[in-house]
Design a protein that fits this description.
By secondary structure, this protein is an all-beta fold. Helix content is 0%, strand content 60%.
Amino acid sequence: MSIRTPICFSSVGLTSGRLPLRPSFAVAPLLLPAVSMQAAEAFRFDSGYQTYDESGGRMFIESYYYRGEMFLSEDTSFRFQILRDAISGSTPIGTLPGDATQPFLVELEDVRSGVLAALSQQIGDHRLELEVSDSRESDYISQGISLNDRWELNQKNTTLSMGLNFVNDTITVRGTDDQNKKSYDAFLGVSQLLDKNTVLSANLTLGYSEGYLNDQYKVIQRNELFFGIPVTNIYRENRPSSRLRAVLQLQGTHFFPSANAALDAILRLTQDDYGISSQSLQLEWRQGLFDRLELTPFVRYYQQTAADFYHRTLNGLNVGTPQDYPDGSGVNYSADYRLSSMAALSLGLKTRLRLTENISLSATYERYEMTGVGGDQAPAQAYPTASMWTFGVSFLF
């Protein structure tokens, strides 16, 4: 059994998988001169280690990644990423806590391996990049391809970004044939340099998924009578077989020369035809110290409404006898807490130390807490609280 955490390989950004534990970091211009990277190097490499540890002995995820970029010529570059996750612990499956006949948490473990390769070519004012990715678990295979373009205009003060992305997923569902899911994304963005210290950007992503969109391990319960005896039965969830979604992201970065610091703000608005509407705001203050050290405290707040088909139980719903292997048809229902009305708050600190002109070390701590809000909350015990540590080293050659 496994859960999926997004690799965030593609710059298009709406890959398949479970709802993210936290929004992925947006690519922002690094205005701070304190620990800036040199773009003229022939090879860039960084390696990292991350732990995600939920309170109460629930989920523990240990991740390793290796990334590199080779500048083959003045106009051509190749980059790659290798990722390995080890997942273990327990997670809610959709039942209610306190029921002696059905478990609220189930144990799981799995290993995920992922690889990405991308070739980038400068053609006039355009930077074209072709990217392919492959991610594999014991019960889930995800393969993607994307084509992106960065178009520099107005003496490089304006940048237009656009891209197309396709992901094909194969899901192993015990008891039946393997299932398939396809995801298509289109991205359009603009970045504008207002002055030497200020950058504003906006981008819009539209995505569509079709096929098997259920989580094969999530269930929902119903109280029934068996020969007049009250029992609690569980059934697999039944999400719609398609999903249309949109993400609008607005970002602003301003460098304060007198403080040798930069403020970065990101507002993200999403809407989909599940009925989920979400908003997130992230603020970062990047402070340069002693020409070699960068400290970045950050805060991130996320809130969403529940999916139209989110229910704690099937009690009272007119669904007849649920299918053994739902295909999205008929009445939709899910008790997955990630589809409930909820909010999440992250607080953290990132540090980066430049040892030499070519070697940098980084460390990040983040505290993450999710809670139910609004009228369609999951049981309070379902929402996780977690600590995340990330350590990295970067080399330039």
